[in-house]
Design a protein that fits this description.
The chain is α+β, with helices and mostly antiparallel strands. The chain has helices at 6-9, 23-33, 53-66, 73-76, 90-96, 119-129, and strands at residues 17-18, 37-41, 47-52, 104-109, 112-118, 133-134, 137-138. The protein contains 6 helices and 7 strands, in the order αβαββαααββαββ.
């Protein structure tokens, strides 16, 4: 378990969001990839932000109420996202997950985005390994 790394559970097939992307395209990417957030990158794939479903919901409500036109991702993204490395132990990341923590982490190697890791991916891997499981079900306290 200790040897399992973020690179073993990360998704590397999801296209990140680019600067100046209209929010409608961001929403489409979130929905089609079934993720709650995506990293925002520059032309060199350096992570410069993160945009979540909640960011989009709020921005779309405000823009439609005030008829301000379509916002772009730069207007709503979080500018200081937490990133992890591919070499980080999954157990270390799992221990840091909690209320108020991100559900999706950009995975960065040499300042470039190489993938994302989600709570769901970590949960699925832990379940597959059988951690805390008895015959396919979580052990119940006696």
């Amino acid at each position: 378990m200790r040897s399992l790394k973020v690179s073993d559970v990360m998704w590397n097939h999801i296209e990140p969001i680019r600067c100046s992307t209209p929010l409608a395209k961001v929403v489409k990417a979130l929905l089609s990839n079934h993720v709650s957030g995506l990293p925002v990158v520059d032309d060199h794939r350096k992570v410069i932000g993160f945009v979540s479903e909640q960011d989009c919901i709020h921005a779309l409500l405000v823009s439609s109420y005030h008829c301000e036109g379509e916002p772009i991702v730069n207007d709503v993204m979080f500018h200081a996202p937490v990133t992890v490395t591919p070499e980080m132990a999954v157990v270390d990341l799992a221990q840091n997950l909690g209320a108020g923590k991100p559900k999706v982490y950009p995975v960065v190697d040499h300042d470039r985005l190489v993938g994302i890791v989600t709570r769901s991916a970590i949960l699925a891997e832990l379940a597959k390994l059988g951690c805390g499981l008895e015959t396919g079900r979580f052990a119940e306290a006696d």
